[in-house]
Amino acid sequence: MYSNQLANNYFDRNKKSKDKVTIYSIYLYNLLENEKLNNIYEIGCFTGSQLGYLCMNFGANGTGIDLSSKSIEYARKKYKNHKFICGDASNLQVDNESQDLVIFGFCLCLMNDDHYKNNMKEALMKVKSGKYLSIIDFDSESTDTCVRDKIAIHKRDHSDIPGLKLLEKKIFYTDNKKHSYDTIYERYSLWLFKKK
C-alpha cells in the first residue's frame, strides 16, 4: 500500500517538476472555463501547483490532500490562501456537497479495488449535484496491473461510475521516456464527469 514514505520518495524524485503546470490542468481549465467554480478539491495534490493554477483561473478556494508530508509542507508555503492536508482520500475533511470540482490527480491507480470504491464514494459525497469530478490516470485501454517503482499500479476503465455522467475523456502521451515500459504505459487520460 502507498505510504507517506513512498509519497515522500516521489516528491524527492520529482523536485524539478514541483512547480510545473501540466497539460492536464490546462486542458481541464479549457473544458470548464465558462463554469462558475467556487470550491476545488484535489486528491493527490503533490505540491499544489495544479490546484493553484485552477484556483487562480477560476477565482476559487482550494483544498488539497496528499500522503507526502514534504509535498504538503511545500504547498502550504507556496499557496498560503489554500488549505492543504497530509492524509489520504478516505477522509476528505470538508462538508458533503460543498465542492464544485473534485480532482483525483494520479492517485486512483495506487489504490486496490476496495480502496478505490471507498474513496470514490467519499469523493462523490463532497461534489455538489450538477458539478464535476475529474480523474487524471493511466489510460485504460489496457486494464492490466503493472509494477512501477515496486508499487502495484491498477489501471481501470472509469467510464461507468454510478452517479456520474461521463462528459469527456482525453488521452495524452508522455514525452518522458524515462518512466516508459512500452507504449501502453506512455498513455495517460483525463476524465471529466458531471454528478447526476
Short description:
By secondary structure, the protein is α/β, with parallel strands linked by helices. It has one domain: Vaccinia Virus protein VP39 (Rossmann fold), CATH 3.40.50.
Strand order of the largest sheet: 3-2-1-4-5-9-8
Rounded average pLDDT = 88
What is the strand tally? 9
Overall number of structural domains:
1
Q: Pick out the low-confidence regions.
A: 177-182
Please name the fourth-level CATH homologous superfamily: Vaccinia Virus protein VP39
Total number of helical segments? 5
CATH class: Alpha Beta
Question: Element order, helices and strands?
Answer: HHEHEHEEHEEEEE
Terminal CA distance reads 32 Å
Sheet of most strands: 7 strands, mixed
Proportion in helices: 25-40%
Structural class: alpha/beta
CATH architecture: 3-Layer(aba) Sandwich
Amount of beta strand? 25-35%
Tertiary shape:
globular
Report the radius of gyration as a whole number of Å.
15 Å
CATH topology: Rossmann fold
Task: Characterize the structure shown.
With 196 residues, the chain is of the alpha/beta class. The chain has one domain (4-195): Rossmann fold. It is 28% helix and 31% strand. The chain is built from five helices and nine strands; from the N terminus they run ααβαβαββαβββββ. It has helices at 4-13, 23-32, 49-58, 69-78, 113-126; strands spanning 39-43, 61-66, 83-86, 99-105, 127-138, 145-148, 151-154, 164-173, 187-195. The strands form two sheets. The protein has a seven-stranded mixed sheet with strand order 3-2-1-4-5-9-8. A two-stranded antiparallel ribbon has the order 6-7. Strand 1, helix 3 and strand 2 (61-66) form a beta-alpha-beta unit.
